[in-house]
Structure formats: structure tokens, C-alpha cells
Specification:
Number of domains: 1
Helix content: 10-25%
CATH topology: Thrombin, subunit H
Number of helices: 9
Distance between the termini: 17 Å
């Protein structure tokens, strides 16, 4: 759909993009295994999905999931701001303090010491044992305390202009699990009332399943909440996560109540289903709310995608607990499309759930619920 920019230029904007996706291959690990380099070299591509994978992507909800399709929005930039002027080519977000030459450098792949606040990332609730959780709370500088890691030198840059697009569409999450325990995470607006996040943010197996509620805080900046907050109680994920706890299916959605029409006001991300060859080596951005930094502050980093599997991809972008559910996006010709959902990591690289064809389809359906 054509959009007119501030300088009068007309560009063709699409919120969602589909390309061919990589074929399922006979070598993949759902939990950051050793086969990434071999998978990244696979060249055969197809749109076909195995029957069991399609079943795993069957949408689930803590309440009745509504059907129906939504028309594409003309703009994803909100009511109060023009679409940023389009620039040709592919680039990263312009963030002061970041050295883009780091993209071409090898980095020492070691854990860095991190500090966690009293509220831990939802990853701990789902994957860590009680001893690990206790240690993370009691020893804030404990090495290797989190599965979302800073790799080598910490190059993350704090975002202070959180009322600007796209930063205002990235939300800090305060999660209350079914058992009453408290956790943190990140989500991003994909429609007027829909956020995308990690599956383990909305459905925590070890804490009673569907969470009780999530406080959503767009553009949070320390003590400042420029758009207030909203309590959500409607959540979505897929059978592969809620029933089988597959990390490759670790994604979900938050549907805000009708009085929290944040996306219409603030804008929202587009999303894209890109093929393996499009993803491998792609420059991507990631921004969220890590627990090792001051509470409710947003931090950004960027690197190239280093490995791609049929359902995930891996990068050396620095993250920490609290950033589960963050958007991983490309910026091309002035348009921002998420290509993955950040979920977890390892010393060899942090990783995202790919927006493959089934994921794309579910995001579109969940977005429609909140339009």
C-alpha cells in the first residue's frame, strides 16, 4: 500500500513479507546443538512443512482464539508521527555510541559477568532448576547465570529516546505467573493491540502453564513510563510449546484489552518470512529490557546472523535475562520487519525463533484479533 512520507515521496509499504523458507533437514537441534554450521550450508529450499511440524504450530490460547483476517494497515508508525523518510539499501538503526565496524570483526565467545535484579527473566522459570534460580538471585555477579548472554565485550547501547519509533513499540513486561511468582521479559507491538514475545513468557510449564497476567509498558525508560502501562490477561502460543516444550516453537502473543490500543497510537513492527539465503549474514537489530541493566531501561545491539536452521537462527548480539521475546529485525529502505523472536542463547551465540511460514501465519491471525 503506498505511503506518503514527509518529503512527499510515495513508497510501497508492506507490513508482512513472505519468501520461500528452508526445507526441513535431517540435522537440527532445538537447543543450540553442534550442527548449525552444517545446516547453514544446506541449499535445497521448499515451502513444504512436515505434518508433525504443522501440528506443533497449531495456535493455542488461554481463552477462545478468534478467527478472521485483518486488512493490512496503511502505516505502522502511529497516529502522531509521519513515516520516517525511506532510504535505499539495507542498514542498521542509527544509534549513537555503536561502532558498526564490529560487524566485520571476530569476537571472543566467552561469557561475561552479568548482574540480575530481584526479578528474573522468564527463562529461569521455565528452564533453570531451583538451585540456579536461587544462585542468580543471591549472587548478582554469578558467571553463566543466564542463558541469554553477553558474548565477549559488552557493546550494548542504551536507548534513551524511547518515545521515538521504533523504540516506543518495544515493551517491558512484568509477568505474574499462575503460581503468583514474578518475572520479566520483552514484547513488541505487531498490531493495534497485539504484541509478539517468547512462548516461555506467556506459558511457563514449571509455574502452572498460562501466566495470570502481564503488565505491558511501552517505551519504558527507567522511572519514566511515557505511555503508562496496561494489564493483559489474553495470551497465545502454539501446541509445540504448550504441549511439547520445544524450543524451536518458543513464541507467543499478548492480546491487550480494547482500552489499550497502543499500536494505533504508537505504531508497530512489520514482520517477514525470509528464506535461508536471505537470512544468512543479514545485519539485524535487537532491542529489549535486560535485567542486568538499570530497571526498565532499553538496550540495543546489532550483528550479522551467523547460522540458520529450519526453525531458528543464531547471532553474536549481546543480550541478558529480561530480553526474552525481543524483536530481531532488519531495516531496509526505511522499513522495519521483524524476522525472528529472541528466545535464548549459549556461549557460541544467542538465538531467535525464525518467522517461518507457519509462524508468519500465526502472527497474522493473532494480529487480526487485536485490530
Amino acid at each position: 500500500m503506498p505511503i506518503r512520507t514527509q518529503n512527499g515521496m510515495v513508497v510501497d509499504y508492506r507490513e508482512d513479507i513472505e519468501e520461500s523458507i528452508a526445507a526441513p533437514v535431517d540435522e537440527e537441534t532445538d537447543s543450540m546443538g553442534d550442527s548449525h554450521s552444517n545446516i547453514a550450508m544446506k541449499s535445497e529450499m521448499t515451502d513444504e512443512q512436515p505434518a508433525d511440524d504443522l501440528e506443533d504450530h497449531m495456535a493455542m490460547g488461554n481463552e477462545a482464539v478468534l478467527g478472521g483476517e485483518a486488512e493490512l494497515e496503511a502505516s505502522a508508525y502511529g497516529e502522531a508521527e509521519f513515516q520516517p523518510e525511506a532510504e535505499m539499501g539495507e542498514e542498521l538503526e542509527s544509534v549513537d555510541g555503536y561502532d558498526e565496524s564490529l560487524l566485520e570483526m571476530n569476537r571472543e565467545e566467552t561469557y561475561a559477568k552479568v548482574e540480575e535484579t530481584k526479578l528474573l527473566d522468564a527463562w529461569y522459570a521455565e528452564f533453570a532448576d531451583p538451585v540456579a534460580r536461587a544462585l542468580a538471585l543471591q549472587q548478582p555477579k554469578l558467571e553463566e547465570a543466564t542463558q541469554e548472554v553477553v558474548i565477549g565485550k559488552d557493546d550494548r547501547v542504551r536507548i534513551t529516546a524511547t518515545t521515538k519509533y521504533p523504540w516506543r513499540t518495544i515493551c517491558a513486561l512484568r509477568i505474574t505467573a499462575a503460581d503468583g511468582s514474578k518475572w520479566i521479559g520483552t514484547g513488541w507491538l505487531v498490531g493495534h493491540r497485539t504484541l509478539i514475545t517468547a512462548g516461555h513468557v506467556v506459558y511457563i510449564h514449571s509455574r502452572g502453564g498460562w501466566v495470570k497476567n502481564i503488565e505491558v509498558i511501552p517505551g519504558c525508560n527507567g522511572n519514566s513510563r511515557p505511555y503508562g502501562s496496561c494489564i493483559a490477561t489474553a495470551f497465545r502460543s502454539v501446541k509445540g510449546w504448550t504441549k511439547s516444550k520445544k524450543r524451536s516453537h518458543d513464541y507467543g502473543a499478548i492480546v491487550l484489552p480494547p482500552n489499550c490500543n497502543y499500536g494505533k497510537r504508537l505504531g508497530y513492527f512489520g514482520y517477514a518470512n525470509l528464506g535461508l539465503t536471505s537470512l544468512l549474514g543479514l545485519k539485524v537489530n535487537l532491542s529489549g529490557y535486560p535485567g542486568d541493566k538499570p530497571s526498565c531501561t532499553q538496550w540495543w545491539h546489532a550483528r550479522r546472523i551467523k547460522f540458520v536452521t529450519p526453525r531458528t537462527f543464531v547471532y553474536n548480539i549481546d543480550t541478558a535475562g529480561g530480553q526474552s521475546g525481543s524483536p530481531v529485525w532488519r531495516l531496509k529502505n526505511g522499513q522495519r520487519h521483524a524476522v525472528g523472536i529472541h528466545t535464548n542463547g549459549a556461549p557460541s551465540g544467542n538465538s531467535a525463533t525464525r518467522i517461518t511460514k507457519p509462524v508468519f501465519k500465526n502472527i497474522k491471525a493473532w494480529k487480526a484479533e487485536g485490530m
